[in-house]
Amino acid sequence: MSPRIHLPSGWVTFVFTDIEGSTRLAQLLGPGYRPVLREHRRLLRHTLGGTDGAELLTEGDSFFLAFADAAAALTACLTAQRALASHDWPTPEAAPRVRMGLHTGYAEPRDGEYASPEVHRAARVAAAAHGGQVLCSAATARRADPLPDGASLLDLGLHRLRGFDDRERLFQLLAPGLERQFPRPRTADAVAHNLPTQVTSFVGRELERAELSGLVERYRLVTVLGAGGAGKTRLAVELACGIVESYPDGVWFVDIAAVTDPGLVAFEIAAVLGLRPEPGRPMVDTLVEYAAARRMLVVLDTCDAQPAASAEVISRLLAGGRGVRVLATSRESFGVPGEVVWRIPPLSVDPRPDGAESDAVALLLDRTVAARGGRPPDPAEQADLRRVVRRLDGLPLAIELAAARLRVLSVGQLAERLDDMLGTLDAGRKEPDPPPVEAGWSGNQQDTVDLVAAASGISPPTPATRAVQRSAIERHLTLQATVTWSYRTLGARSARLLRWLAVFAGPVDLPTVQWLLDDDPLDPLSVLVDKSMVLAEPHASGSTYRMLDPIRAYAARRLVEAGEEQTARDRHVAWSRHALQRARLGPDGRPVTLSLYALDPLAGELRAALRWSATGGSARSGLWLAGGLDQWWRERGLAREGRLWLFRLYGRIAETGEVIPEAELAAAYHMHSLHAGADGEFAEELRYSQRAEAAARQAGDLGLLARVLAGRAAPLIDMGQFAEAERVCREVIEWAHEQDVVSDALLAIYNLAELLWRRGALDEAAELLGAARPVEAARPAERGRRSVDMLLGMVALARGDLVAAHEHLLVALRSRMSHGYLGRACDTVNGIAVRCALGGDPVTAARLFGAAQATRADLRATPGLYGQYWLDRQAELRRVLGDGAFDAAYGEGAELALEEAAALALGVEHPDLAVDSPRFGVAGAPAPRRPDQTPDQTPATRPHPA
Fold this sequence. Notes:
This protein has 946 residues and is of the alpha/beta class. Helix content is 53%, strand content 9%. It is built from 42 helices and 15 strands. The strands form three sheets. The protein has a seven-stranded mixed beta sheet, with helices on both faces. Strands 9-10-11-8-12 form a five-stranded parallel beta sheet, with helices on both faces. α9 runs parallel beside α10 and α23 (565-583) packs across α24 (603-615). InterPro entries: A/G_cyclase (IPR001054), HTH_77 (IPR058852), Nucleotide_cyclase (IPR029787), P-loop_NTPase (IPR027417), TPR-like_helical_dom_sf (IPR011990).
C-alpha cells in the first residue's frame, strides 16, 4: 500500500470482497483463470478505487477497503456488482461471483493499518454473504444516508457471526441489476435449523411420534408415507423440532413441492444449506462434499413431486457420509436400499382406553374452538363430532377443513351434509389470485431456479411452471386440490381403477377388484397403494384394500366426469348380488344354514348398491338385494331402514316405469309387511300383507303364495285378534298340505304354535311343533333360528318341565347366537330367565331379564306375543327378591353385552345336575300359570309333560 493513501478515522466503513468458489473456478478454467482474475481486479479497482475508498489490501481474489462515508461505500459496492454482472466474460461459467460485506465502527489507523475488532466484524459479515450479494451490518445501515437511487435495505434479522458472542442484525442491499434471492446467510446460529414455525397446536399422535422417533434414531432413511392431507409434513416437523439438539450440524427442512424440474432437486437442498453452484461441477457433488463430514438431519417434504430425482439425491447423500440422515415425506416410496417405509395412519377415531376423546375428535375440537372465536362446541354436539370424524376417516386435512365450516354450521348440520363431502369441505374456498413473484416464494427458491439455468443447462421456469409452483404451495387449500396433486400422476389404468373403486363402500379383497374390472388389477392396484391413494391392510387370509372416505368422494366425482358411473355402479350391484348368493353357499356350492354374520360385512356394500338402485340403477335389482337382507334388517333392529329402502325403490319404479314381475313384487310386499310389524306399524303391516297376497295370486306360484299367506296371521296377532289369527293359520296350513307346499308355510306353523301356547293348548302345540321339526331342518334359511326348539322350550316352561325347557332353550340359544339371530336370541335369553326363576335362581333370572331388555332396546324391537308374559314373570321375581335386590340384579344384567348374557345363560346348570333338584319345578313352588291367565286363574294341578 502506498504511504500517500489517506486512511479515514473515526466512524469508518470497512468493506471486504472475495470470489465465491474461487478454488473451483480456478480448477475449471485452468490457465484461463489468471486473465479472469486480472479482469476481476481491474473492474473492482475501477469501481471501488474510483471512489473515496482506501484500498488497504489486495490478496489473491480478495479486496479490503475503508471508507469515511457509509453511503459512499454502499454505492461503490452497488457499482462494482453491476459492472461485474454486465461485463462480457469469456463464458458464462467463467463469470466470477463476488460477495461483499460492510460494517461501520469507530477506528483509528496506526502505522498504515487498523488494529480494531471492527475490521474482523466486517470480515465476518462478508463471509456470511453469497456470491453476488452485498451484506451490511446494522451500524452501516444506520449511517448509509442517502442510499443510491432505487436502492433499499432488506432486514435479514439477527445472526451470530463466527467468532463473536453477540448477535448482529444483517441487511441485504436491494437494487435494480442485483440478484434478489439468496440462501440464508452463512452465520453460526446457535440453533442450526430452518424448521417452519407452526401457527396451530399439534394435537395427539403420541404413539406415532414415539414409533417414528425410534425409526429415525435407528435408520438413516425413513420415509413417511400417506395420502394427501394425512398429516405427514406436520408430524415430520413436530418430530424434527424435538431432536434438533441431536444433530450438531443442523436439521434442515426442504420442500420439494414447488420443484418443477428433476434437475433442480439438488439445487433446492443446496440452497437451504447455504450452498451455491460451483462452475463446471454438478450441484449434487457440491452437496455431497459439504454433507460428507457433517452430522445432520435433512427433512425432505413432498418428495412425490419429484420421486426419481429425490431418490437419486438421497442415495448420493447417504453414500457420501455416515453422519447424514434423511426423514422424507411422500405419497409413494423411493425403493432405494436402506429405506424404511412408515405409513402414517389416519387419526384415531375411537375413544382412548382411559375414556378420553380420540385424537380425531380432539383435533376437531381444538380447531372448532379457534374457528368459533374461542367458544367450545356445546356438550350436546359431542355425538355429532364423533360422527363427523368417522365420516372423514380421521384424515387431518379433512378435519381442519371441517372445522372451518363450523363457523357457519352446527356440528349436526355439518354431519348431515357430508354425503357431498367435497362440496361441503371446500365450500367458500376459491382459487387464490396469482401472487407476485416475491410473494409466491420463500427464501431462495425463485432466483435459485433462474441462476442454475445458466450453470446447468436447465431452462428457467415458464409462466406455466410458475403456475405449477403456485399450485404446489396451494395444494392443501382444498380437499380436491390435495387429491388432484396425486391423481395427476396416475397412468390411465391406475386412474380408472381409482375411479371404479369409488363404488365400494368399504374394504375389498383382490378377487373382488378383479371381478369389478374383469381384468387383472395387480399392476394398477400396486400403483395406487404405492402412491397412498389406496390403503393395503394385510390379514392372515389375504390383504384387503380401501380408500379413505375423502379420497373416495374425489374418485366418485371423477367417475361421473369420466362418464363411467352407470357402468361401474351397475357392475357393483351385480357384484353385490353375487356376494349375497355366495353368503348362502358352502365351499362346495351347496346351500348352507343361513348365518346373518355372513351378511354383516356386506351391509355397507349392499347399502351402496341399494342407493344406486334407488337413484340411478334398476329398482328390480334393488328389490332383490333388499330381499337378500330380509331377516338381517329385523334381527339387527333395522326394520325401519328396510322399509325406507323399499319405499325408495317403489318410487324408482314409478319414476322409470320399470316392469317388475308379480312374484318379485309379492316377495317385496311380504318382506315389507314383516318389517312394518317389527317396527310397530301394524296398519302398514296389514296393508302390505294384503298387497303381497294379491300379487302372489297373480303370479300363480303356489310356494310363494304359501309363504305370503303364512304371514297373514302376523298383523292380526299384533293387533290382538288372536282367534282370527288362529283361524287363518289353520286354513293356511291345511291348504299348504293340500298343495304339497307345507314347507313354505312354516311361518303359519310357528304362529299357530305361539297362539296355542298362549291359550294353554300345550299338547296340540307340542304335537304341531314335533311334526314341523324335519320341515324346519330341511330349509337352510330357517333352520339356524331353531324356532321349533324355542317354542318347545316355551311349552315346557308352561308345563313346568325344567329339564325339557332347559334343553330346548339352550339348543335354540346356541344356534341363534351362532348364526347371528340377535333379536330372536333376546327372546331365548328371556325364556332361560324364566327357567332360572322356576328353578330357584331368581338373581340370575333378573340379570338375564335385564340383559335381554337392554339389547332389545338397542335393537328397537317391539315386545311381540311374549311381551306381557315376560313382564308378568319379572313382576313375580320382584315380589320374590324385593325391589332393591331385583333392581340391582336387573341393572347388572343391563350392563352385559348380548354375548355375555348368552354365555351366562348357557352356563346355567342343568336341572338334573342340581342337588335334590325335582324333576318338575321347585318343590313346594306354585304351579305355573297358563300364559293368558291372571294370577287368580292358576290351575290347581300342573300340566303333564309332553
